[in-house]
Amino acid sequence: MGAEAKAKAIGIKFDDDAEKGYLNMVARVGHTLITSGHVSNIKGKLGDDLTVEQGYAAARECGISILKSVHQEVGSLDGLKVVKLLGMVNSSLTFTEQHLVVNGISDLFHEIFGKEGDGFHARSAVGFAQLPTGVAVEVEAIFELG
To answer: What CATH number did the domain enclosing 55 receive?
Structure first.
């Protein structure tokens, strides 16, 4: 089963009709796709009012949004390789589990693209004092087109 079929099997729907926004959500340079930051609907600060589990869910939300944007740009998830993720976590000064939060998107991409293959990626998971509109997580991604 390809990445597209796996994503649909877990309930991700691709509309591909979203209006263009103020910024390009996916920039294509040759065979590389670079996404803008995609934010979670979940708001709050890890280490204050959100648990690691809630942060994990927020990172997964970011992943689904990224996949929808990439799908709108190229029409399919098949033939993509996940290269790099940058996970930014809205964190209190004492919160140190950003890596566990960002596992929410890494695990999603491993499930869809394969942990041993096209889903095996480089990643950074960092804490920020604040993110736009108070969201819990923002993630950027880089993909290679096969």
So the answer is: 3.30.1330.40
Q: What is the pTM of this model?
A: 0.96
Over the stretch 107-124, which tens digit does the pLDDT of each residue have? 999 999 999 999 999 999
* CA Rg value for the chain: 15
Asked whether residue 53 is assigned to any structural domain, the reply reads yes
Element (H, E) at 64: helix 52-74
Euclidean distance between CA atoms 1 and 11, whole angstroms: 15
Beta-carbon neighbour count of residue 64 at 10 Å?
18
Q: Which two tokens stand for residue 68?
A: 């929808």
For residue 95, the Cα-to-chain-centroid distance in whole angstroms is: 21
Give CA–CA dist 112/8, Å, rounded: 9
